[in-house]
Write a structure and sequence with these properties.
Layout: H1 2-5, H2 10-35, H3 39-62, H4 66-88
């Protein structure tokens, strides 16, 4: 198993974790916008979501070992954004305002 990760480039792995964390955070915000029926906000988050996901996808399609780092980043991003949304529920949030 360790041999599988022996060729991993640490900075690239960190980039995959960061990009998938950001991607999942944006996906949560996109979903919140869709649930709130905010078209402009949902469309904006959707375009950012695809831009962010492209880095991780391009990276791990060349080397499948980076899928593990993508999964880690995905977990971090969803957890962090849910924490952000939960804290914002107690007070008015910019995410709660319709943008269109």
């Amino acid at each position: 198993m360790i041999e599988l990760f022996s060729h991993v480039q640490p900075l690239l792995a960190l980039g995959v974790v960061a990009s998938t964390a950001a991607t999942d955070a944006v996906y949560v915000l996109f979903t919140a916008s869709v649930a709130a029926r905010r078209r402009v906000s949902a469309a904006s988050w959707s375009s950012v979501w695809y831009l962010l996901s492209s880095f991780a996808v391009i990276t791990y399609t060349k080397d499948w070992v980076y899928v593990a780092f993508a999964a880690l980043g995905s977990w971090i991003g969803a957890y962090a954004s849910m924490t952000f949304l939960e804290r914002g529920a107690a007070q008015p949030s910019p995410l709660a305002r319709p943008m269109d």
